Structures are given as structure tokens and as C-alpha cells.
Amino acid sequence: MGGGPESKPEHMLVTLPFPEPTPIIERIRKHHPQITVTYRDLNVETPFESKHDIPDDVWHDATILVTLQALPPSAKECPNLGSFPLLPLFPIDSSLMSCFFEIGLIHFLSAGTNHISTHPIYTSTSIPLTTSSGIHGPQISEWVLLTALVHSHAYHTLHSWQLSHTWGSSGQISRLRSIRDNVGQRLGVLGYGSIGRQVGRVAKAMGMDVIAYTASPRETPESKKDMGFIVPGTGDPDGEIPSAWYSGLDKKSLHEFLAQDIDHLLISVPLTKETLHFLGTEEFAILGKRAAFVSNISRGQIIKQADLIAALEKGAASAGKDLAESEDKGLRGAALDVTDPEPLPEDDPLWDAPNCIITPHISGAGIAYVERAFQVLEVNLDRREKGERMINVVDRRRGY
After folding, report:
1. Is residue 46 very low, low, confident or very high in pLDDT (cuts 50, 70, 90)?
2. SS (H, E, C) the chain
């Protein structure tokens, strides 16, 4: 196919927490007849549940593994995936490794791999790992703007009126005239990946200015491009939306970004050792000068949760007061699709934090999720067979 290495018989083991998506699996069989596909429905209560009942011998013949969470105990149980030790100074790009060696591929239906980052296959092998990053932008961007608008337009109040069959008095309605629309506000995207790019696209369409933050500098037009999977018609493929770019994982660089008069901060950086508890009292105080709204769709551990609660309480206490522009006014609100821990315990104080919207890690859910996740896999199956560079390959050194 396409002048690459000759296709050899392969075995794809798919272990997912839902029934087989038959049309998708049949499509793979048709386009890749050399691949035998075995599907195992894990039948677990929650998608990221780690327990499974897959016998060790089932892993043995797999050359390709498609999963969300389930992995064999170690690489010994899946010798056909290839399990040579990690070589930190290995000169060949991991996205090309399966073309040069008879090793396999593990594709995750999640956007990240932090949930398996301590597994021996992650820490002690060089088996190529790919993610479904890029598929979540459309649905998560809608969640981000939905929850922000629910807050800014006082929808909870409006809905309570409807439930009580109340039209609202003239005094109540007059208070809603202070609502500020998005035109001219600034969205700061902390982590300008596929999700951040789509949120930026939608925000710009609503009249917002968008600024971007990345771990490493993006100083050239080429470096600003999105090289991963892109849902057609979405995102920012060429990196043209932000009016300014910022970078760096040190406190000084982060604080410089946060000090750019941000009205709405989107947290979309991956969880790594560098971003663990990335935002706390100092960072919220900087954002508090604009009484910013914070959206977190990444991981709960990126925020120091107690500090967030304190900033929200300060924001509620400061509301309506005539404070100096440079003064920390606290946060005017937050929307969290992720918490620490998950599920959030019933007695956790975050539930009662003022002006805080909490949802149970569902912003990425949608009818198109599985189809798009397998589209990423199919792109890489084609590239792998042609000896081309794969997309969405995890860089173990960076953690994503």
C-alpha cells in the first residue's frame, strides 16, 4: 500500500467498555484485510475502571491494541506488541518506529495517557502509544461556552422563575440589564492544543480576543500549526487566531500570561509533573484583578482546589463593591468538568463554592466520540502501512 513496507498479517485486540461498534470494525476489516480484529466488551460500570477479566493468553497474539484503560499487567503478556526497553537517546522518532521495527501499536480512545503513566508498558517499553487527541474540540468547546453563558446570563435565576411560574418583577429584571456580553472580552487559553483551538475559534466568532499559552515557544508560522488530528471545519489549523502567544512552564512565564487582562481563562493543559497544582492562590490573585471566570476541562489536579474555593468566595464577597482596578476581587465564577478527586465526595466543600458550575467529567461526551476516535486510529493504520509518520504519538518524556 503506497510503496511502504509489505503488509504482514496482524491481530488487533480492541478492549473497550461498550458494545462493539460493528460498522466501524467492519470498515477496518475491509480496508485492512491483513488485520484480524478481536473485540472484547469490558462490561464495566465506569469507562476508566481499571479492573477487567481478560485472560493473559488473549493479549499474546495482539500486534495492535485499542483501549481506553485496559492493559496487560506487563509487556511480557503481549510479546507481539514489541517490548524492547526504553532508550532515552534513541535517534528515531517514535512516530516512525513501527515502520523500522516489527513492533506494534497501542491506541487510546482518550485524549491523554496520564491515567496509565505509571504502568510498566508506559514506563519501561518503547511500544508506540497514540491518543485520540483532536476529537474532543467540538463538544467541549460547546460545553465551555454553554457553562460560561449560563453563568453570565444568570440562567439559574431565569430557570427558577420558569419552574415557579414566575415572570419576574421589574426590579428583578432590571438587575439582569447589567449582563456583559462577550464582545471585547479576552479569552486566555492555557494549553493551545486541539480543544483550546476550537474554543478559541468559537470565542473569536463571539467577538472575543484570544491569547494562547503553550509549554514551549511557538515563534514561527510552522511551529504554530496543529499537526494532530483535526475534525474538518474546526479548530485553528494554522494558529492564526491568537493575537498573542506566551510560553514556559516556570512561574514567571505563567504569571506574565495570566497578567494579560484575561476575562475568561480556559485550562486545557495536559496533566504532567510540571502542571500538577499549576494554579493556586498566587495565580488566582492575578486573575482576580479582572474578576475572571475560570473553566477547567483538563484535570482537577491542575488546580489547588482549596485555593479555588477561597478565590470564588472572595469573588462573591466583592461583587457589587467599588474596588480599585488593581485590587484582587476574587473570581467571578468557575465551570469545572473535572475535580480532585473524581467522583467528588458528597461532603466536599467545592459543591457549595459560590458561582461554581460542576459537571461529572462529561464535556467530551457525544454521539460522534467513538467514530472520531477510530478515525484517528484508521489514519495511523494507513500511515503505518505506508511507512509514514503517525499522528498523535505520545512523547513519554513530555508526558503527552
Report:
1. low
2. CCCCCCCCCEEEEEEECCCCCHHHHHHHHHHCCCEEEEEEECCCCCCCCCCCCCCHHHHHCCCEEEECCCCCCCHHHCHHHCCCCCCCCCCCCCCCHHHHCCCCEEEECCCCCHHHCCCHHHHHCCCCEECCCCCCHHHHHHHHHHHHHHHHCCHHHHHHHHHCCCCCCHHHHHHHHHCCCCCCCEEEEECCCHHHHHHHHHHHHCCCEEEEEECCCCCCCCCCCCCCCCCCCCCCCCCCCCCEEEECCCHHHHHHHHCCCCCEEEECCCCCCCCCCCECHHHHHHHHCCCCEEEECCCHHHECHHHHHHHHHHHHHHCCCCCCCCCCCCCCEEEECCCCCCCCCCCCHHHHCCCEEECCCCCCCCCCHHHHHHHHHHHHHHHHHHCCCCCCECCCCCCC
